Amino acid sequence: MGYVDGFVLPIPKENVDAYREMAAEAGEVWIEHGALEYKECVAEDVKEGELTSFPQGVKATRDETVFFSWIKYESRAHRDEVNAKVMEDARLKGMMGSPALFDSKRMVHGGFEIAVDL
Q1: What is the pLDDT of residues 47-97, one digit of tens each?
Q2: DSSP string, 47-68
Q3: Which terminus, N or C, of the chain has the lesser number of Cβ atoms within 10 Å?
Q4: 118: in domain
C-alpha cells in the first residue's frame, strides 16, 4: 500500500517564507530521487488541546506555527533507497548548512506503513 515519513515541526512565524522556500527545494530533491509525494502543510485551523495537540506536541510558542509534513514512498525499502540518495545529494547538504530555520530537537517524525489508502 505504501509508506510515509511523517513530520510535525514548529517554525518561527518570521521564518515561514524562508522555510517554504527551503522545503520546496528539498522536495524537488526527494522527488528527483524517487519519492512519490512531498507535502508541507502549515497550520491553519489547529487549536491547543486539553491533553495534547500539534502545537503542544512540539512545544510551539506564540511566535511559532506548526508544519505537518509527509513524504510518500512505495514501501519502506523504497524509502530507504530514496533517503540514501537524498542524504548524499550535495544540494540537500547545502540547505542543511544554512542557518537553522527551526528547532529540530522539537520536531516529531517517524516512518509509517499506510493502513488505509482511498
Answers
A1: 888 888 999 999 999 999 999 999 999 999 999 999 999 999 998 877 765
A2: ---SS--HHHHTT--TTEEEEE
A3: C
A4: no
| DSSP structure class, residue 116 | -
**Which of 77, 81, 97, 75 is closest to 30 using CA atoms?**
81
What the block records as the C-alpha cell of 15 is 521564518
Judge whether 33 lies within some domain. Answer: yes
Smallest CA-to-CA distance from 86 within 75, 9, 94, 68 is with 94
Q: Which domain holds residue 37?
A: 3-113
Q: Is position 97 within any domain?
A: yes
CA-based torsion, 96, 100, 104, 107: positive or negative: negative
Largest Cα–Cα distance of the chain, in whole Å?
Answer: 43
> First-to-last CA distance in the chain?
10
Residue 24 falls inside a structural domain: yes
| Confidence (pTM) | 0.91
Q: How many domains does the chain have?
A: 1
